[in-house]
Amino acid sequence: MPLIRVARRAGCDNGGMSTSMHPRLQATRDCLQTLVGFNTVSSQSNRQLIDWAANRLEALGARVLVQHGEDAPGAGPSEAGKANLFATIGPDQEPGLILSGHSDVVPVAGQDWHSDPFVLTERNGQWLARGAADMKGFIACAIESAAGFARAGLRQPIHIALSYNEESNMRGMRQLAAHLAQAPVKPLGCVIGEPTSMRVVVANKGAAIFRVRVQGFSVHSSLRDQGVSAVELAAEVIVYLNALQKKLNEAGRHDGFEFPHTSVHVGMIQGGTAHNITARDCEFMFEVRALPGATAQAIVAQVREHCATRLEPVARAVSPECRISIEEILDAPGLDERGNVHLAQAIMPLCGHAGVGRVSFGTEAGMLQEVGIPTVVCGPGQIRVAHQPDEYVEISQIDECLHFMDALTARMQQGPIGRL
C-alpha cells in the first residue's frame, strides 16, 4: 500500500514547509550539529555521543541506563568501545513508549562529498551531514523535546533509546531488547525514527547477511581435471541462489512492498590468484530480505543442503580439502504489521498522516517485536539519501518531527496511548 499524505499542519505549503517554524528548530539544529560532529561510523566507538546524550538527559531528570557493548553475551571486537543508552522520563510504574534511534552511521570513504560530512551544512532548505537523515535528525528532535517531556507531568513515561552497530550487525539492539524483555514493566510500544518522511511504516522486510567461504584444490590450469576451482564452485552456489530467487518469485507475495517477494542477492565476490591457476579460495557475500512471516534461515537451510549433498561430494572426490562454509553475519527479523495495528492507529493522528506503508529496507523493529514490544517506524527524511554523499534531511521534515513530539507529549498526558 503506498503512503498517502492526507493531512497537512496549518501553515504548511505543498512542500510541507511551515510558514511559522517550530520554536525549538534552532536548538534542534544546534543539537544535530553536535551529533553529526561525533564520528560514529560503525568501525569507531560511539561512547562520546552516548556520554554527551546521557549528560544532557540526566540534567533534565531522566533516569539513564548505559549498556556497554563489551558486556553483551558473546561480545567480540566489533562491540568494544560501543554502548546503548536507555533513558526514562516519567513514572516508572507505568508502561511507556520508546523513541529509538541508532547512533552509528555508515562510512564516507570513497564518496564525493561537497562539504565536510561531519560538519552540519545548510543548503537549499536542507541540512547536510553524514547521519542527518539516517538517523541523527530524529535523535536531535527527541533530545530537544526531552525538556518538554520532563515538564509535562506525563501519565506514561517516554523512553529515549540509542543503539550501536545498527549499520553492521545490529548487536546493540539485540542487547537492549534482551534487557527490556526482562524489565519489571515492559514498554507498551516503540517508534523507531528511520527516515520515512514522517509517515507510519508498519512492516519491513528482514535483513540477513551471510558469508560463503569456498576452499578448492589448486593446480596449474593445464591440469584442471586434477584440481577444483573455488571460483567455479562458488559460481555453482550462486547459480543455485538465482534459481531459489525464481522459486521465491513464483511463491507467495506481499503486494504492500515495491518488490513483493523475499529477495536473495549476491553483492560481493573475490577469489583466485592468477588466470592460469585453479583458485584455492573464493569468498562471497549474499543477503536475504525476507517478507514478514518468512525467515532467512529457511532459505539458508536449502543452500546448506544443496552444498552438502550436491556440490561438496563432487569436489571432495577430487580432493578431501574442498569444502563450503556459510557464516551468518546478521539476521534481523522483519517487522510484521499483525503485531502493531493498535500502536499504528494511535501514532498516525499524531504525525499528521493517514494510511500506512511498508518498506524493504531493514530496521531494528523486528527485534523489539520479537520480545513483545509493538513497534512502528516513523521519522524525518528520505531513505533514498541515506548512505549517499551529501546526505541531507529537509528542514521542513525536522519541523514536522518536532510537531509530532509535541502531539505525542500531549497524548501521553491524557493517559494510556493504547491497550496493546
* Biggest β-sheet description: 6 strands, mixed
Low-confidence stretches: 1-18
SSE pattern? HHEEEEEHEHEEEHEEHEHEHEEH
What is the strand tally? 15
Strand order of the largest sheet: 1-2-6-3-7-14
Structural class: alpha/beta
- What radius of gyration results from the CA coordinates? 24 Å
Q: Give the terminus-to-terminus CA distance.
A: 24 Å
Proportion of beta-strand residues: 15-25%
Q: How does the overall form come out from the CA principal axes?
A: elongated
Roughly how much helix do the residues carry, as a percent range?
Answer: 25-40%
Mean pLDDT: 93
Counting DSSP H or I runs of 4 or more residues, the number of helices is: 9
Q: What this model shows, in words?
A:
- With 420 residues, this protein is of the alpha/beta class.
- It is built from nine helices and 15 strands.
- Strand 4 (121-123) and strand 5 (126-128) form a beta hairpin.
- The longest helix is centred in the last third of the chain and has 23 residues, at 296-318.
- The two termini are 24 Å apart.
Quick structural overview:
By secondary structure, the protein is of the alpha/beta class. Helix content is 33%, strand content 20%.
Characteristic terms for this protein:
15 strands; single chain; alpha/beta; 20% strand; elongated; four-stranded antiparallel β-sheet; 33% helix
